[in-house]
What does this fold into?
Amino acid sequence: MEKHYLMTPGPTPIPEEIIKTMARPIIHHRTPQYLDIVKKVNEDLKKVFKTSCNVLTFTASGTGAMEASVVNTLCQGDTAVVVRGGKFGERFAEICQAYGVKVVPVDIDWGTRPEPSVIEGALKRYPETKAVFMQLCETSTATVYDVKSIAGLMRERETILVVDAISGLGADEFEMDSWGVDVACGGSQKSLMLPPGLAFCAVSKKAWTMVRRSKLPKFYLDFEKYDQLVDKGDSPWTPSITLVIGLQRALSMITQEGVDNFIKRHKADAEFVRSFLKGLGLGIYSKFPSDAVTAAKVPHGVDGSELIRSLKAKGVTFAGGQSQLKGKIIRIAHMGGITREDLKAALGKLKEALKEQKAKV
Amino acid sequence: MEKHYLMTPGPTPIPEEIIKTMARPIIHHRTPQYLDIVKKVNEDLKKVFKTSCNVLTFTASGTGAMEASVVNTLCQGDTAVVVRGGKFGERFAEICQAYGVKVVPVDIDWGTRPEPSVIEGALKRYPETKAVFMQLCETSTATVYDVKSIAGLMRERETILVVDAISGLGADEFEMDSWGVDVACGGSQKSLMLPPGLAFCAVSKKAWTMVRRSKLPKFYLDFEKYDQLVDKGDSPWTPSITLVIGLQRALSMITQEGVDNFIKRHKADAEFVRSFLKGLGLGIYSKFPSDAVTAAKVPHGVDGSELIRSLKAKGVTFAGGQSQLKGKIIRIAHMGGITREDLKAALGKLKEALKEQKAKV
It folds into this structure.
């Protein structure tokens, strides 16, 4: 059978050695063997988030971690500044609204990033703002945001910065502690090379002061319930054992390569993809392209959805655009288990498909 | 290597064919191939729950489904009757309290079950009760509750019945529609033969009227978000793809055997275990033993925790007692992928271990 290339920004392909690790007979989660695995996972996750704070692991989709970052830090009626530059920024706003948090939206054109001055302006107009919510990589537009500069604005304020790093973590540069990020969300099915099903929140000291005053109701996603067990490798509810065991393997691979080298490899792959696309005459959609995923503009005269379908028939799955970008972009992930060879093969097929669609390449 | 026998009431061993199915290269969740798998899963789950209502699948531990059953049906200040006969009954009460729901506890001795007359008494004293929460199998005491009779009390009331069937589903007799249960929770790591990581809520028509008036905040676990996509095989957030694909295999095995035969096999295995234990001179802890898991009393003079440790060394993992039952019982699961041969082998080791501990067997 011909290899199928899964090039979507989640799920990403799972390396064979991780699949094999997860295929071993399952073990119980309250055994020393499993607790030791989790302790190792927790230490390695800190290396990926670049933090000395605890990273809490939830059995959930990434959206679960996004919700956890809201319900654990805020109270009803609190004000939150929310960057809306794509589908995932909108999701943070929807979660806040579902819990009665007042949203000050910072709406930016899709494919651009929020300028620190704009965030600063919002914070000055709404000095009561308790938290700023933004993405590291806004997956829907393949755009990396300037988290570092925006985190700098929080240093002299009580406001916390919550970053959805779900698709960016491990691919785009991210330094939780040195930049001063307070809550960072992650997910398993991106650069961490696992199936979906695990989500993470790394929580800073400053965020913990907010957690203690937070009055929004929570139970399953309650940070404190996880945090009091995390050092023992334990969790309040039965965890997703096989995924956590796979995660240990994935994190071993990443820390063996070195987190910085891992990030550099993503950067190099992203540059390779962007340069290949430019060579094909395709425009890059985002003004600030992420190193996790690239959005190529579909050329005039080509039907984007049809292009994705024809690539599927050739054994390559790319993601299309969402909402307002439907049919207008194709998104090519270059993270986690996607190798340079995979990228070359998949982009070769893209070239073929474009030719067939008689685009001017 | 000698086989290790995992005999805990979750996780349970995963049959080889399910492991192999989950070890295939991952596919994207918004492809016709995956959506078709989910549609099949949804139909088969209805057969297991014995319902014509939709069964919603969450990426979560069982506790996530328990929380979903609270936050989707109630409002702050609503009254709920909660049966507390073990650790999981207590959990329902804690979830209700976390969301500002008034709890009318029905506390029963551990190892017994709530009598319908007691529930009826509570409903008469608190006619404003919006929901009754109870277990099918209270895993911590290995006790099956009389859901059928208690469901009968709801027929002429507006009150709904929410049943945590997480450990009982597929093992203990359960008929959602014909008994009149309104919300039934399930989990993947019990008789469904999967790793933990998926949770389910089946939701009746009567429950949907409560869902529409419910004002408790929710987002990740919002029934309506799932229900509007369920017929397409889609889900609001990236699902736990590999577990869902494994679930299709598991449900195919169960429906091929026939759900009723599957339940009967659990009953026969449970009877075999209870009779073997009696033969060893061990008492059965519960007055109403479940067909999913059996709790044996640890004989006088034997240290329960030490017994579990010595069995572990012999390659058998049993669960001990929780909270007030710590050291006093051992719990032996007989569900899902645990075969009669596994039970014979594991109970043989128990006999050996008891002899070594010089118990009078």
Summary: Residues 141 and 352 of chain B are 25 Å apart (CA to CA). The two ends of chain B are 30 Å apart (CA to CA).
